[in-house]
Amino acid sequence: MKIINIAIDGPSGAGKSSLAKKVAKTLGYIYVDTGALYRSIGYYVRNKGISLEEVNKTIDLLPEIKLDLCYDNGVQKVMLNGEDVSSYIRTPDISMYASAVSAIPEVRTFLLDIQRNIAKTKSVVMDGRDIATVVLPDADVKIYLTADPKKRAERRYEELIGKGVETTLEEVYNDMTLRDKNDSTREVAPAIKAEDAILLDNTLFTEEDTLKRAIEIINEQVK
Fold first, then answer.
1. Which of 49, 58, 158, 203 could disulfide-link to 147, CB 3.0 to 4.6 Å?
2. Does the predicted TM-score (pTM) go above 0.90?
Protein backbone atom coordinates (compact mmCIF):
# COMPACT_ATOMS: atom_id res chain seq x y z
CA MET A 1 0.00 0.00 0.00
CA LYS A 2 1.30 3.44 -0.92
CA ILE A 3 2.42 5.62 2.00
CA ILE A 4 0.51 8.92 2.09
CA ASN A 5 1.67 11.92 4.13
CA ILE A 6 -0.76 14.72 5.00
CA ALA A 7 0.53 18.01 6.45
CA ILE A 8 -1.79 20.36 8.34
CA ASP A 9 -0.33 23.72 9.34
CA GLY A 10 -1.86 26.85 10.80
CA PRO A 11 -1.82 29.32 13.69
CA SER A 12 -2.67 28.64 17.31
CA GLY A 13 -6.31 27.84 18.02
CA ALA A 14 -7.29 27.03 14.44
CA GLY A 15 -8.13 23.47 15.43
CA LYS A 16 -5.21 21.71 13.73
CA SER A 17 -4.85 18.91 16.27
CA SER A 18 -8.58 18.23 16.43
CA LEU A 19 -8.82 18.11 12.65
CA ALA A 20 -5.67 16.02 12.23
CA LYS A 21 -6.92 13.44 14.75
CA LYS A 22 -10.26 13.13 12.98
CA VAL A 23 -8.69 12.92 9.52
CA ALA A 24 -6.30 10.21 10.72
CA LYS A 25 -9.14 8.24 12.30
CA THR A 26 -11.32 8.60 9.18
CA LEU A 27 -8.55 7.43 6.85
CA GLY A 28 -6.93 4.90 9.18
CA TYR A 29 -3.63 6.80 9.26
CA ILE A 30 -1.26 7.55 12.16
CA TYR A 31 -1.73 10.95 13.82
CA VAL A 32 1.47 12.78 14.73
CA ASP A 33 1.09 15.85 16.97
CA THR A 34 4.41 17.63 16.44
CA GLY A 35 3.42 20.50 18.72
CA ALA A 36 3.34 18.05 21.62
CA LEU A 37 7.03 17.34 21.05
CA TYR A 38 7.94 21.02 21.34
CA ARG A 39 5.63 21.40 24.31
CA SER A 40 7.36 18.49 26.03
CA ILE A 41 10.75 20.12 25.62
CA GLY A 42 9.29 23.39 26.90
CA TYR A 43 7.83 21.52 29.86
CA TYR A 44 11.20 19.98 30.66
CA VAL A 45 12.98 23.33 30.39
CA ARG A 46 10.48 25.13 32.60
CA ASN A 47 10.71 22.40 35.22
CA LYS A 48 14.48 22.93 35.24
CA GLY A 49 13.80 26.48 36.42
CA ILE A 50 14.88 28.14 33.20
CA SER A 51 13.03 31.36 32.37
CA LEU A 52 11.81 32.38 28.92
CA GLU A 53 14.53 35.04 28.85
CA GLU A 54 17.27 32.41 29.16
CA VAL A 55 15.62 29.71 27.06
CA ASN A 56 18.76 29.28 24.92
CA LYS A 57 20.05 27.14 27.78
CA THR A 58 17.76 24.49 26.29
CA ILE A 59 20.59 23.53 23.92
CA ASP A 60 22.66 22.23 26.82
CA LEU A 61 19.73 20.14 28.07
CA LEU A 62 19.00 18.31 24.82
CA PRO A 63 21.35 15.37 25.60
CA GLU A 64 19.25 14.74 28.74
CA ILE A 65 15.97 14.52 26.80
CA LYS A 66 14.53 11.34 25.36
CA LEU A 67 11.20 11.66 23.56
CA ASP A 68 9.00 8.87 22.26
CA LEU A 69 5.54 8.77 20.73
CA CYS A 70 3.34 5.83 21.57
CA TYR A 71 -0.28 5.05 20.77
CA ASP A 72 -2.95 3.70 23.13
CA ASN A 73 -6.16 2.78 21.31
CA GLY A 74 -5.18 5.17 18.55
CA VAL A 75 -4.50 8.05 20.95
CA GLN A 76 -1.01 9.55 20.82
CA LYS A 77 0.90 9.83 24.08
CA VAL A 78 4.17 11.69 24.53
CA MET A 79 6.78 10.03 26.69
CA LEU A 80 9.42 12.34 28.14
CA ASN A 81 12.27 10.35 29.67
CA GLY A 82 9.86 7.48 30.21
CA GLU A 83 7.05 9.57 31.72
CA ASP A 84 3.73 10.21 30.01
CA VAL A 85 3.50 14.02 30.03
CA SER A 86 0.52 14.30 27.67
CA SER A 87 -1.78 15.79 30.31
CA TYR A 88 0.75 18.39 31.55
CA ILE A 89 1.73 20.20 28.36
CA ARG A 90 -1.42 22.05 27.26
CA THR A 91 -1.37 25.09 29.55
CA PRO A 92 -0.82 28.69 28.30
CA ASP A 93 2.48 28.74 30.20
CA ILE A 94 3.80 25.70 28.35
CA SER A 95 2.49 27.15 25.06
CA MET A 96 4.83 30.12 25.48
CA TYR A 97 7.75 27.83 26.32
CA ALA A 98 6.96 25.70 23.28
CA SER A 99 7.04 28.78 21.08
CA ALA A 100 10.33 29.91 22.59
CA VAL A 101 12.16 26.58 22.27
CA SER A 102 10.82 26.06 18.73
CA ALA A 103 12.77 29.13 17.60
CA ILE A 104 16.06 27.45 18.55
CA PRO A 105 17.67 25.77 15.49
CA GLU A 106 19.25 22.99 17.57
CA VAL A 107 15.84 22.04 18.99
CA ARG A 108 14.27 21.87 15.54
CA THR A 109 17.13 19.68 14.28
CA PHE A 110 16.79 17.47 17.36
CA LEU A 111 13.12 16.79 16.57
CA LEU A 112 13.27 16.70 12.78
CA ASP A 113 14.54 13.13 12.48
CA ILE A 114 11.90 11.83 14.91
CA GLN A 115 9.12 13.34 12.81
CA ARG A 116 10.49 12.34 9.41
CA ASN A 117 11.28 8.76 10.41
CA ILE A 118 7.66 8.16 11.37
CA ALA A 119 6.45 9.52 8.02
CA LYS A 120 8.86 7.33 6.05
CA THR A 121 7.31 4.08 7.24
CA LYS A 122 3.64 4.93 7.83
CA SER A 123 0.82 6.95 6.28
CA VAL A 124 0.51 9.91 8.64
CA VAL A 125 -1.43 13.05 9.34
CA MET A 126 1.00 15.51 10.89
CA ASP A 127 0.04 18.92 12.24
CA GLY A 128 2.17 21.83 13.36
CA ARG A 129 3.41 25.15 12.07
CA ASP A 130 6.09 24.22 9.55
CA ILE A 131 5.14 20.71 8.45
CA ALA A 132 4.53 21.53 4.79
CA THR A 133 7.42 23.99 4.55
CA VAL A 134 10.17 22.16 6.46
CA VAL A 135 9.33 18.81 8.02
CA LEU A 136 7.47 17.19 5.12
CA PRO A 137 7.98 19.47 2.10
CA ASP A 138 7.06 16.56 -0.21
CA ALA A 139 3.81 15.73 1.59
CA ASP A 140 1.07 14.41 -0.69
CA VAL A 141 -1.47 16.84 0.75
CA LYS A 142 -0.82 20.22 2.37
CA ILE A 143 -3.57 22.08 4.20
CA TYR A 144 -3.22 25.46 5.90
CA LEU A 145 -5.99 25.73 8.50
CA THR A 146 -6.85 29.15 9.86
CA ALA A 147 -9.67 31.23 11.31
CA ASP A 148 -10.39 34.72 12.60
CA PRO A 149 -8.12 35.48 15.60
CA LYS A 150 -11.03 36.22 17.93
CA LYS A 151 -12.72 32.95 16.98
CA ARG A 152 -9.47 31.05 17.53
CA ALA A 153 -9.06 32.62 20.97
CA GLU A 154 -12.63 31.69 21.91
CA ARG A 155 -12.03 28.07 20.88
CA ARG A 156 -8.78 27.82 22.82
CA TYR A 157 -10.38 29.46 25.88
CA GLU A 158 -13.25 26.96 25.87
CA GLU A 159 -10.77 24.11 25.50
CA LEU A 160 -8.70 25.27 28.47
CA ILE A 161 -11.73 25.91 30.68
CA GLY A 162 -12.97 22.44 29.82
CA LYS A 163 -9.68 21.05 31.11
CA GLY A 164 -9.97 22.98 34.37
CA VAL A 165 -7.32 25.59 33.53
CA GLU A 166 -7.99 28.95 35.20
CA THR A 167 -7.62 31.73 32.65
CA THR A 168 -9.54 34.53 30.92
CA LEU A 169 -10.49 35.06 27.29
CA GLU A 170 -8.39 38.22 27.22
CA GLU A 171 -5.34 36.38 28.53
CA VAL A 172 -5.78 33.60 25.98
CA TYR A 173 -6.19 36.11 23.14
CA ASN A 174 -3.10 38.07 24.16
CA ASP A 175 -0.96 34.94 24.60
CA MET A 176 -2.15 33.54 21.28
CA THR A 177 -1.50 36.79 19.42
CA LEU A 178 2.00 37.01 20.87
CA ARG A 179 2.74 33.40 19.99
CA ASP A 180 1.45 33.89 16.44
CA LYS A 181 3.77 36.87 16.04
CA ASN A 182 6.77 35.04 17.48
CA ASP A 183 6.19 31.92 15.39
CA SER A 184 5.63 33.73 12.10
CA THR A 185 8.61 36.06 12.43
CA ARG A 186 11.28 33.72 13.80
CA GLU A 187 14.36 33.35 11.64
CA VAL A 188 14.33 29.55 11.62
CA ALA A 189 11.37 27.78 9.95
CA PRO A 190 8.82 30.58 10.39
CA ALA A 191 5.20 29.50 10.72
CA ILE A 192 3.90 30.50 7.31
CA LYS A 193 1.65 28.98 4.65
CA ALA A 194 3.45 26.81 2.09
CA GLU A 195 2.99 28.14 -1.43
CA ASP A 196 1.33 24.92 -2.58
CA ALA A 197 -0.85 24.42 0.52
CA ILE A 198 -4.64 24.59 0.25
CA LEU A 199 -6.10 27.32 2.46
CA LEU A 200 -8.95 26.18 4.70
CA ASP A 201 -10.58 29.01 6.67
CA ASN A 202 -12.95 27.47 9.22
CA THR A 203 -14.10 30.65 10.98
CA LEU A 204 -17.74 29.86 10.20
CA PHE A 205 -17.37 26.07 10.18
CA THR A 206 -18.28 23.51 12.78
CA GLU A 207 -15.75 20.76 13.46
CA GLU A 208 -17.83 18.46 11.26
CA ASP A 209 -17.81 21.02 8.43
CA THR A 210 -14.04 21.38 8.73
CA LEU A 211 -13.50 17.63 8.60
CA LYS A 212 -15.79 17.27 5.58
CA ARG A 213 -13.93 19.96 3.65
CA ALA A 214 -10.53 18.54 4.62
CA ILE A 215 -11.50 15.08 3.37
CA GLU A 216 -12.71 16.64 0.13
CA ILE A 217 -9.34 18.37 -0.30
CA ILE A 218 -7.48 15.14 0.41
CA ASN A 219 -9.60 13.19 -2.08
CA GLU A 220 -8.95 15.87 -4.70
CA GLN A 221 -5.19 15.73 -4.12
CA VAL A 222 -4.69 12.00 -3.74
CA LYS A 223 -5.72 10.09 -6.84
1. 203
2. no
